[in-house]
Amino acid sequence: MVTLLENFTPLSSFSGGLLIGLAATLLLLFNGRIAGISGIMSGLISPGKGEIFWRLVFLLGLVLGALLVKAVIPDSIKIREGFPYGLLAIGGFLVGFGTRMANGCTSGHAVCGIARLSKRSIAATLTFIVSGMMTVYLLRHLIGLSV
């Protein structure tokens, strides 16, 4: 039997969602930019004038925020060990490929796009969710891989 919501943590889930929404709102209000991580990252490859600093600060904040939480609450972030590097590489490539095809990632479409009632973002987010559900079902129930 499959246990749903096996590790559900409502307080940390709520506070994480609140912080993501707050960060997206502040970036839009003060910078006029959408907090889509893939867009922020790709903007570093060919940046416009005055585009580098805020992008670097935003991305650095993501990394430093996670390190700060790990330092303050050591058991909050568990590093998964023994995961096949080949699968990580394939997964990373597929995520990057899908992000380019969808003109954005889950943070841009799901968090920011749906809040703006973008039909394209709603369609993209539904595609992300359905694809993820099908992938989990395929890997866990048809192939028998539990990672």
Structure description:
The chain has 147 residues and is mostly helical. It has helices at residues 10-31, 37-42, 52-72, 85-101, 106-115, 119-142. The radius of gyration is 17 Å and the shape is globular. The two termini are 17 Å apart. The relative contact order is 0.09.
Write the layout of secondary structure elements.
Elements: H1 10-31, H2 37-42, H3 52-72, H4 85-101, H5 106-115, H6 119-142
Helix pairs in contact: 5-6
Largest sheet: none
Low-confidence stretches: none
Shape annotation: globular
Helix share of residues?
55-70%
Number of helical regions: 6
Order of helices and strands: HHHHHH
Strand content: under 5%
SSE class:
mainly alpha
Overall pLDDT metric: 85
Task: Work out the radius of gyration.
Answer: 17 Å
Total number of strands: 0
How many domains make up the 3D coordinates? 1
Intertermini distance: 17 Å
